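Please, structure for the following, as tokens.
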Amino acid sequence: MSETQPTAVLLGPRDSVVAAAESLGLAVVIVDDPTQPRPPATDWPVVETAWTESADELVERLRAMEWSGPVSCFGFGEIGSVVSAVVNRELGWPGNAPEALHAFKDKAKLRSVVGDRAGKPVSHVVCRTRGELLPAIERIGHPCVVKPVDGTGSSGVRYLADSGEAEKHVAEMAFSTPHLVEEFLTGREYSVEAMSGPAGHRIVAVTEKATTGAPHFVETGHTLPVSLSPADEAAVTELVTAMLDAVDYRYGPSHTEIMLTAAGPRLIESHGRPGGDRISDMLILALGEDVFAQTMAAVFGLPVPSEPTGRRVAGIRYVTFDRTVPMHDISTALVASMPGVAEVHISVPAGQLPPSVSKSGDRHGFVVAVGDDRDELETRLEGAVRTLTASP
């Protein structure tokens, strides 16, 4: 490492994150938690520590290392974004303040920090005990949504249509963390992918999403970019930038979920990381937007990667297999070779019954594809899903 070459400390990175750092000419140190899926094979130095459980040992290991130029820690997942902020503060490296990431992680805290600065707040009650839930549900009214304040991937989310459903759900649910009871919003649901840096916040793309609907609202597909009317686009941009300012988010990608109602956009929740479900890959496929490289360039004050040139449309669709029949051994090679298909994945091992889908981790598999326009994309995705799920 040269005396001026910046070093990116990467927490459990995917191949694309390492490639982004290398494209900027950065030196790399990879942090590997031996209890988690392994990071990519690499010739870069590797620090092994259980960073997903605690940042303390990681901080001390990194403090003891010799650094010859600027350094910052980067994590682009739900846990990594928080841990990297803590590491950077403890070691005096540039990055986001931990308070910003804690606000994203705690849905109740996010609503408290943002208040009415990002449009009309969603009516909600924070419940710290099970006994507070039914009075809160009565206060919010039906229908409503109950969810953990720190949940991800639709885990624990439940739509409650009436008092009977509420009483049954509260009696049967696991309650190990505070929950939110929120008003149920109606409209069109989107996510907004944004990038933040010294120049401010930039909307990268608006993503259309599909879900299973009530009661769990598990996401079944995403398509980006999609266009909104000029008025809606302006309102969404104002909401997202106001929210990011409120939490003092300074560097990197964010993923904000909104409901576009008849009265305008409403904030559902937000995350200080790229969107999951391969949204970061879809941004590259469709628009040439590499949020990993852009983040590292912003933190180190390097020239921003060249302007994106892509003008295509990308999407992911989750597949559902027959839950009454054990999974057979499926080859994904044929689907992977179809025009526009970028990735195919099956989550259920052969011989097992596909599970009921009540959270993101239950989904059976997916296909990612890209097309020159929405019609071509949908044709490619429909053909790929149909081929993947056809009986053997």
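The radius of gyration is 22 Å. The chain has a mean pLDDT of 93.
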